[in-house]
Design a protein that fits this description.
The chain is α/β, with parallel strands linked by helices. It has two domains: about 190 residues, HUPs (Rossmann fold); about 80 residues, no CATH class. Helix content is about 35%, strand content about 15%. Helix 3 links the parallel strand 1 and strand 2. The radius of gyration is 19 Å and the shape is globular. The two termini are about 30 Å apart. The N terminus is likely disordered.
């Protein structure tokens, strides 16, 4: 792309062009890729980018979601609806299946299943022979993700070694791997949360309803709002409040908290996002608060 052409593009145009380029690189270099689609806002953007990269043909990869069995119903229903609208194959593998096989064993019945998705993901990769998983992770979300390459190499055990990463100079990407190894590709790695919401606004993308302000029963714990659900019921002594909230990120119910908000439109969410001083995972993810290295350790074990 010439310097003149680059200067005439908007910021979003440039991010979109880079992401489409990465998607096409994965499709061209990898024989059996898969796009991870949870129904969350980042993976919804990934679907639109895939449409622009490959339509009017079919996607050169299926969609896949690793379901903990404790995901928000609004999100999984949206996941199924969107995949059906696109006419693309959706593979769903569940942590509950791994539990039934004995490859995942919870320490206690109420232990979060979120970190155990790594096991189910690696099992699905082996089952289908995928050699690349395309995800919507972004560097601004968390410091372990900030130092990960766009094409992230994983060894035959699914492990990530932050000290052994491939150079990515001048947007030249190496997605090649040997049999049994795997690439995790992150086309929107350079996007911010604000970029994502601006893209959603520009493309008029539909989202699950829980991204917008609604009233929900919660319990205040450790500076976060824990939603009261069948999976996470209130405990004796908890004070349950009905609070107007929205979700900045979605995942397993046991570790994803909403934030107080009256933003019920994309325009209002854009204003909130532009003025916040806390990252979305910092404000909402209980699993990242166990230690400063929680995410990095999970990635080393095969996490997304």
């Amino acid at each position: 792309m010439s310097t003149l052409t680059r200067q005439t593009l908007t910021h979003l145009d440039w991010l979109e062009a880079e992401a489409i380029h990465i998607l096409r690189e994965v499709a061209g270099q990898c024989s059996n890729p898969v796009l991870l689609f949870s129904g969350g806002k980042d993976s919804i953007c990934m679907l639109r980018l895939a449409e622009k990269a490959f339509r009017p043909g079919r996607f050169p990869f299926p969609l896949m979601h690793i379901d903990t069995g404790h995901n928000y119903k609004e999100v999984t229903d949206f996941r199924d609806k969107r995949a059906a609208e696109l006419g693309e194959r959706l593979i769903v593998r569940s942590v509950e299946d791994s539990m039934a096989r004995g490859t995942v064993v919870l320490k206690t019945p109420d232990e979060s299943r979120n970190k155990h998705q790594s096991v189910t993901l690696l099992e699905a990769i082996e089952e289908f022979g995928f050699n690349a998983c395309i995800g919507g992770a972004r560097r601004d979300e968390e410091k372990a993700r900030a130092k990960e390459r766009i094409m992230s190499f994983r060894d035959e055990f699914g492990q990530w070694d932050p000290k052994n990463q491939r150079p990515e100079l001048w947007n030249l990407f190496n997605a090649r791997s040997h049999k049994g190894e795997n690439i995790r590709a992150f086309p929107i790695s350079n996007w911010t949360e604000l970029d994502v919401w601006q893209y959603i606004e520009r493309e008029q993308l539909e989202l699950p309803s829980i991204y917008f302000a609604h009233v929900r029963p919660v319990v205040r714990k450790n500076g976060l709002l824990q939603p009261v659900t069948d999976v996470t019921p209130a405990k004796p002594g908890d004070v349950v409040e009905n609070v107007q909230v929205r979700f900045r990120t979605v995942g397993d119910i046991t570790c994803t908290a909403p934030v107080e908000s009256d933003a019920d439109t994309v325009a209002k969410i854009l204003l909130e996002t532009a003025t916040t001083t806390i990252t979305e995972r910092g404000a909402t993810r209980m699993d990242d608060q166990t230690s400063d290295a929680s995410m990095e350790q999970r990635k080393k074990e095969g996490y997304f």
